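Project outcomes to date are best conveyed with an example. Our students and postdoctoral researchers have been running inverse folding experiments weekly, and each run begins with a structure described purely in C-alpha coordinates. The record below, which covers 234 residues, was selected by the lab manager from last quarter's runs and is presented without edits.
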Protein backbone atom coordinates (compact mmCIF):
# COMPACT_ATOMS: atom_id res chain seq x y z
CA UNK A 1 0.00 0.00 0.00
CA UNK A 2 1.57 3.28 -1.09
CA UNK A 3 0.89 6.83 0.01
CA UNK A 4 2.29 8.23 -3.24
CA UNK A 5 0.52 8.89 -6.53
CA UNK A 6 1.74 10.30 -9.85
CA UNK A 7 0.43 13.75 -8.96
CA UNK A 8 2.30 13.88 -5.64
CA UNK A 9 2.20 12.75 -2.03
CA UNK A 10 -1.15 12.64 -0.28
CA UNK A 11 -0.60 13.52 3.38
CA UNK A 12 -2.36 11.65 6.18
CA UNK A 13 -4.50 9.50 3.92
CA UNK A 14 -4.14 6.47 1.69
CA UNK A 15 -4.85 7.19 -1.96
CA UNK A 16 -5.19 4.01 -3.94
CA UNK A 17 -7.64 2.47 -6.37
CA UNK A 18 -10.51 2.86 -3.88
CA UNK A 19 -10.01 6.64 -3.75
CA UNK A 20 -9.00 7.33 -7.34
CA UNK A 21 -11.64 7.90 -10.01
CA UNK A 22 -10.92 9.13 -13.52
CA UNK A 23 -7.54 10.55 -12.51
CA UNK A 24 -9.06 12.42 -9.55
CA UNK A 25 -7.98 11.33 -6.07
CA UNK A 26 -10.03 11.90 -2.92
CA UNK A 27 -8.34 12.22 0.47
CA UNK A 28 -11.12 12.01 3.08
CA UNK A 29 -8.77 12.70 6.01
CA UNK A 30 -7.39 16.05 4.83
CA UNK A 31 -10.54 16.74 2.76
CA UNK A 32 -8.66 17.21 -0.50
CA UNK A 33 -9.61 16.53 -4.11
CA UNK A 34 -6.26 15.97 -5.83
CA UNK A 35 -6.07 16.50 -9.57
CA UNK A 36 -3.69 15.01 -12.13
CA UNK A 37 -4.73 17.18 -15.08
CA UNK A 38 -4.47 20.81 -16.19
CA UNK A 39 -7.98 21.16 -17.59
CA UNK A 40 -11.17 19.90 -15.97
CA UNK A 41 -14.83 20.79 -15.51
CA UNK A 42 -16.79 21.23 -12.31
CA UNK A 43 -19.24 18.62 -13.60
CA UNK A 44 -16.46 16.05 -14.01
CA UNK A 45 -15.16 16.62 -10.48
CA UNK A 46 -18.69 16.34 -9.07
CA UNK A 47 -19.42 13.15 -11.03
CA UNK A 48 -16.22 11.49 -9.82
CA UNK A 49 -17.06 12.48 -6.22
CA UNK A 50 -20.39 10.68 -6.57
CA UNK A 51 -18.54 7.58 -7.82
CA UNK A 52 -16.14 7.81 -4.88
CA UNK A 53 -18.95 8.12 -2.32
CA UNK A 54 -20.64 5.04 -3.80
CA UNK A 55 -17.47 2.96 -3.41
CA UNK A 56 -16.70 0.94 -0.29
CA UNK A 57 -18.02 2.75 2.80
CA UNK A 58 -16.94 6.25 1.72
CA UNK A 59 -20.44 7.56 2.31
CA UNK A 60 -19.49 7.75 5.99
CA UNK A 61 -17.38 10.82 5.16
CA UNK A 62 -20.43 12.77 4.01
CA UNK A 63 -21.10 14.67 0.79
CA UNK A 64 -18.24 16.36 -1.04
CA UNK A 65 -20.54 18.68 -3.00
CA UNK A 66 -23.98 20.24 -2.87
CA UNK A 67 -25.53 20.68 -6.32
CA UNK A 68 -28.26 23.07 -7.43
CA UNK A 69 -29.58 23.87 -10.91
CA UNK A 70 -29.73 21.57 -13.89
CA UNK A 71 -33.51 22.07 -14.17
CA UNK A 72 -35.13 21.61 -17.57
CA UNK A 73 -36.84 24.82 -18.77
CA UNK A 74 -38.24 23.28 -21.97
CA UNK A 75 -37.45 24.09 -25.60
CA UNK A 76 -33.93 22.76 -25.17
CA UNK A 77 -33.12 25.20 -22.35
CA UNK A 78 -31.86 24.29 -18.90
CA UNK A 79 -30.42 26.01 -15.86
CA UNK A 80 -26.69 25.26 -15.64
CA UNK A 81 -25.69 23.27 -12.55
CA UNK A 82 -23.89 24.95 -9.65
CA UNK A 83 -21.57 22.92 -7.43
CA UNK A 84 -20.66 23.90 -3.86
CA UNK A 85 -17.79 22.25 -1.99
CA UNK A 86 -18.91 21.16 1.46
CA UNK A 87 -17.09 21.73 4.76
CA UNK A 88 -13.31 21.68 4.42
CA UNK A 89 -13.21 19.94 1.03
CA UNK A 90 -10.93 21.81 -1.38
CA UNK A 91 -9.23 21.11 -4.70
CA UNK A 92 -5.46 20.66 -4.83
CA UNK A 93 -3.73 21.00 -8.22
CA UNK A 94 -1.19 18.43 -9.34
CA UNK A 95 2.40 18.79 -8.14
CA UNK A 96 3.92 20.59 -11.15
CA UNK A 97 4.31 24.03 -12.68
CA UNK A 98 1.17 24.56 -14.77
CA UNK A 99 -2.01 26.50 -15.43
CA UNK A 100 -5.11 24.79 -14.09
CA UNK A 101 -8.34 25.62 -15.90
CA UNK A 102 -11.61 24.74 -14.15
CA UNK A 103 -14.72 25.21 -16.27
CA UNK A 104 -18.17 25.59 -14.74
CA UNK A 105 -19.91 26.98 -11.69
CA UNK A 106 -17.72 25.77 -8.83
CA UNK A 107 -17.87 27.45 -5.42
CA UNK A 108 -17.35 26.84 -1.70
CA UNK A 109 -20.52 26.62 0.36
CA UNK A 110 -20.44 29.76 2.51
CA UNK A 111 -17.66 31.37 0.45
CA UNK A 112 -13.91 30.97 0.14
CA UNK A 113 -11.29 29.69 -2.30
CA UNK A 114 -12.01 26.42 -4.10
CA UNK A 115 -8.32 25.50 -4.39
CA UNK A 116 -5.39 25.14 -2.00
CA UNK A 117 -1.64 25.30 -2.75
CA UNK A 118 0.36 22.27 -3.81
CA UNK A 119 2.47 20.48 -1.20
CA UNK A 120 5.65 21.24 -3.10
CA UNK A 121 6.83 24.66 -4.30
CA UNK A 122 5.34 25.01 -7.77
CA UNK A 123 4.06 27.90 -9.86
CA UNK A 124 0.37 27.15 -10.41
CA UNK A 125 -2.06 29.59 -12.04
CA UNK A 126 -5.73 28.72 -11.52
CA UNK A 127 -8.25 29.93 -14.12
CA UNK A 128 -11.98 29.71 -13.47
CA UNK A 129 -14.08 29.85 -16.62
CA UNK A 130 -17.77 30.34 -15.78
CA UNK A 131 -20.74 30.69 -18.16
CA UNK A 132 -22.15 34.19 -18.61
CA UNK A 133 -25.73 33.13 -19.26
CA UNK A 134 -28.04 31.79 -16.55
CA UNK A 135 -29.49 29.25 -18.96
CA UNK A 136 -27.96 26.30 -20.78
CA UNK A 137 -28.92 25.08 -24.26
CA UNK A 138 -29.39 21.44 -25.12
CA UNK A 139 -27.29 20.59 -28.17
CA UNK A 140 -28.22 16.95 -28.67
CA UNK A 141 -30.54 14.16 -27.58
CA UNK A 142 -33.91 14.24 -25.82
CA UNK A 143 -36.88 16.28 -26.98
CA UNK A 144 -35.01 19.60 -26.82
CA UNK A 145 -34.18 21.64 -29.90
CA UNK A 146 -30.87 20.68 -31.51
CA UNK A 147 -28.58 23.67 -32.03
CA UNK A 148 -26.13 23.35 -34.93
CA UNK A 149 -22.66 24.88 -35.14
CA UNK A 150 -23.88 27.10 -37.99
CA UNK A 151 -26.71 28.45 -35.84
CA UNK A 152 -24.30 29.18 -32.99
CA UNK A 153 -22.01 31.03 -35.42
CA UNK A 154 -25.00 32.97 -36.73
CA UNK A 155 -25.99 33.99 -33.20
CA UNK A 156 -22.45 35.16 -32.46
CA UNK A 157 -22.39 37.19 -35.68
CA UNK A 158 -25.79 38.67 -34.82
CA UNK A 159 -24.55 39.70 -31.38
CA UNK A 160 -21.43 41.20 -32.95
CA UNK A 161 -23.64 43.23 -35.32
CA UNK A 162 -25.68 44.45 -32.36
CA UNK A 163 -22.53 45.42 -30.50
CA UNK A 164 -21.23 47.34 -33.51
CA UNK A 165 -24.54 49.15 -33.64
CA UNK A 166 -24.18 50.01 -29.96
CA UNK A 167 -20.67 51.32 -30.59
CA UNK A 168 -21.85 53.41 -33.54
CA UNK A 169 -24.67 54.83 -31.43
CA UNK A 170 -22.20 55.68 -28.67
CA UNK A 171 -19.87 57.39 -31.14
CA UNK A 172 -22.74 59.55 -32.41
CA UNK A 173 -24.18 60.62 -29.04
CA UNK A 174 -24.67 64.38 -28.97
CA UNK A 175 -23.19 66.64 -26.33
CA UNK A 176 -26.62 66.85 -24.74
CA UNK A 177 -26.31 63.17 -23.79
CA UNK A 178 -23.20 61.25 -22.73
CA UNK A 179 -19.77 62.58 -23.55
CA UNK A 180 -17.44 60.29 -25.53
CA UNK A 181 -15.51 59.60 -22.30
CA UNK A 182 -18.70 58.68 -20.46
CA UNK A 183 -19.82 56.52 -23.39
CA UNK A 184 -16.52 54.62 -23.41
CA UNK A 185 -16.78 54.12 -19.66
CA UNK A 186 -20.26 52.65 -20.13
CA UNK A 187 -19.03 50.29 -22.85
CA UNK A 188 -16.09 49.22 -20.66
CA UNK A 189 -18.50 48.39 -17.82
CA UNK A 190 -20.57 46.33 -20.28
CA UNK A 191 -17.51 44.32 -21.29
CA UNK A 192 -15.89 43.80 -17.86
CA UNK A 193 -19.18 42.42 -16.49
CA UNK A 194 -18.96 39.68 -19.12
CA UNK A 195 -22.14 40.81 -20.91
CA UNK A 196 -20.47 40.78 -24.35
CA UNK A 197 -20.95 37.18 -25.59
CA UNK A 198 -17.88 37.53 -27.81
CA UNK A 199 -15.64 38.55 -24.91
CA UNK A 200 -16.18 36.15 -21.97
CA UNK A 201 -15.02 37.24 -18.54
CA UNK A 202 -12.11 35.08 -17.33
CA UNK A 203 -11.16 35.26 -13.64
CA UNK A 204 -7.72 33.82 -12.81
CA UNK A 205 -6.05 33.10 -9.48
CA UNK A 206 -2.25 33.32 -9.15
CA UNK A 207 -1.87 33.34 -5.36
CA UNK A 208 -3.74 33.24 -2.08
CA UNK A 209 -4.95 36.81 -2.53
CA UNK A 210 -3.89 37.70 -6.08
CA UNK A 211 -5.29 37.13 -9.53
CA UNK A 212 -6.77 38.89 -12.54
CA UNK A 213 -10.01 39.58 -14.41
CA UNK A 214 -9.85 39.78 -18.21
CA UNK A 215 -12.65 40.54 -20.68
CA UNK A 216 -11.48 41.32 -24.20
CA UNK A 217 -8.86 44.08 -24.00
CA UNK A 218 -9.84 45.08 -20.45
CA UNK A 219 -7.56 43.70 -17.75
CA UNK A 220 -7.85 44.09 -13.99
CA UNK A 221 -5.42 43.02 -11.27
CA UNK A 222 -6.78 41.47 -8.08
CA UNK A 223 -4.95 41.87 -4.77
CA UNK A 224 -6.11 41.74 -1.18
CA UNK A 225 -5.90 40.18 2.22
CA UNK A 226 -8.08 38.30 4.70
CA UNK A 227 -10.26 41.38 5.14
CA UNK A 228 -10.43 43.04 1.73
CA UNK A 229 -10.20 42.53 -2.03
CA UNK A 230 -8.80 45.27 -4.32
CA UNK A 231 -9.52 45.25 -8.08
CA UNK A 232 -7.44 47.67 -10.19
CA UNK A 233 -7.59 48.19 -13.93
CA UNK A 234 -4.22 47.62 -15.61
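After processing, the design step wrote out the following sequence:
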Amino acid sequence: MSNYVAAGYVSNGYIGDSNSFGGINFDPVSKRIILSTTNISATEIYSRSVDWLAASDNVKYGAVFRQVGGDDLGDGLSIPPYFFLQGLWRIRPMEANHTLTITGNLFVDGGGDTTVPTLGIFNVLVKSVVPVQAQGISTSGGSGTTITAAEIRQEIDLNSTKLNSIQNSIDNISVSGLTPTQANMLLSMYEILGLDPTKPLVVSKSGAYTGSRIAGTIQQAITGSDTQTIVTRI
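The chain has a mean pLDDT of 76. The chain is about 20% helix and 30% strand. The training component of this project remains on track.
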